[in-house]
Amino acid sequence: MRLFEVLINNKTLIAPTNGRQFRVVFNILIDFGGFNTYCDMSIYNLSESTAAKAFQRESILGFRAGYENNIDYLFRGQIRNVFKERQGPDTITRIIARGGTSFDKPIINQTLDKNANIVDMIRACCSALGYPPVIDDSQFSDVNVYANGMTISGDPRKYLDKFAQAHDFSYTLDNDKIIIVRNDAFRGGSPVVISEAEGMEGIPEISEVGCDVSTRLNPKLKIGGRIDIQSELRTFNFSNLYFVDVPPSAGVGVYRTFKLEHVGDSWGDSWTTKITSKR
After folding, report:
1. Full-prediction pTM beyond 0.90?
2. Integer Cα distance of 203 and 270 in angstroms
């Protein structure tokens, strides 16, 4: 049975439910292509007093979804805008939220000692931004230390961007943590199997750099984590299919998630995680 839960400022507003009483439609985006995560959520036919009291700008929205034996946070962030809409006889409270709970414009001013390593610098920037990092130090063991140390002064995001370009890693904000993964590595944990038997929707599209695939909504999927594509049916989007011999096993195997999009309608058919992944 599908379940979802809505929380405001860490307090439950809608307890875990299958949505028969409340209709909720949501679209949540987590992407290594950008720092922020996003949530666009519509709740149908809330009373005006409940909507006005609960969904206030800068309140913290939490959203958990999944199934009875597999429910977890898909999003946690700050409400930026709330709109009142109508669709036929239904009134809709639409909530636009951005990931994270710290929206000050932080400045870092820190000097790291001689022989500081890149992980120290990444951690310093994350601390200045107000979020703990999720990072595997061993992924950066090949990076030389900064023999003369370094002074970091200014916008910590700009420094993270420079470090990411120089040392080949991706980062994004997810559920109040900054996820950092080297571009040739992956986040810890076992691969999540994507197959017909495990809820895959449609068939995977394989390209020269990765795979796009959709599956039944799964909160176990994490940005930077691994998926294991197991499908006999696949479509291919290569630039030179007329001149390339594609082996029968092409496209199956393990990928790293680069973008996750969770979409759902508690009264409709949509309850899906769309995955963009790379080899």
Report:
1. yes
2. 16
